[in-house]
Amino acid sequence: MVNLGIRVVGGKRMPNGELGAFVSAVNQAKYNQILGEVKEGDQVLEWNGVLLNGKTFEEVERIVNSSSGEVEIILKSEGEKSHRISNLRRYSTAMRDSSRFANVTALPVSQKTLRIKDASPDRAPPVPMHRRNGHNGTIGRNPSSRIYDNVDSLDYGNDAWPNKPQDSLGYLQVAISYDRASSRIVVRVVAARGLKMRDQARRLAPNPFVKIYLLPGRKVSNKRRTRFVPCSTDPEWNQIVEWQVSPVSLPSLYLEFSVWDYDRLTENNALGQVTVSLAAIMPC
């Protein structure tokens, strides 16, 4: 996959006798495009929701070459117990240098801790694009930010998480800003605390990740997602997603955050969701 900056080869025999697909080459010139997460030798478990284990070289090649637009892959690095999700765009023109996030830090930011509500959002085909960001940046707090009615909001503090009620599904930290220069909504999904256990009796923690939809209109092109964090009720993502949106449309838009438990073998389970109004970050 030259356009994605990586080459994936299937049909390789693994020590357990099963066929697997692996990243055989990474184009360093497109390092930013592949998010800095993909390494040569990584095993590719899924490609756009299709399991690659057990497939021949030709089958994997056909699956990879039939992809278009954005691509979602699930990776496992050698020596790691956890899997990493990476979301790639086929066209480098759609990607931006991650250092551009520095331009956003000077703008008003709504940074909140949101109480997660019980919900079971519909699943949608994976067509997200996300970027990880290593810059800490100076993100300020905006106490006047308005949150949509079905969200309990608390001002965010690095060490100040609310006490969790017995019936709570947990809390999600996000930071939202609008970059006027490029007409971008920029969302940093920071962390969550107190998520529901996958199996309370056996003390099994979930593999949480977050799906973010720009609403109204549940289009796959408006969907983004984070990578998943293995076996944690207190995951930290510190991951950035963004959308191109004109200023005039901001007051009518919402962001839906749904937290999911990733399961490689069965259906992903919804852990809850919250919805935030973007009217609060409308540029003056």
UniProtKB/TrEMBL annotation:
Q: Residues in domain C2?
A: 161-284
Task: Write down what this protein is called.
Answer: C2 domain protein
Write the record's keywords in alphabetical order, separated by commas: Synapse
Q: Which SUPFAM superfamilies match?
A: C2 domain (Calcium/lipid-binding domain, CaLB), PDZ domain-like
Q: Does the keyword Transcription regulation apply?
A: no
Biological process terms in GO annotation: exocytosis
What are the GO cellular component annotations? Answer: membrane; synapse
Q: Where is this region: Disordered?
A: 119-144
- Which organism is the protein's source? Ancylostoma duodenale
Give the subcellular location: Synapse
Look up keyword tRNA-binding and say if it applies.
Answer: no
Q: Where is the PDZ domain?
A: 1-79
Which molecular function terms from Gene Ontology are attached? Answer: small GTPase binding
Residue ranges, compositional bias (Polar residues): 135-144
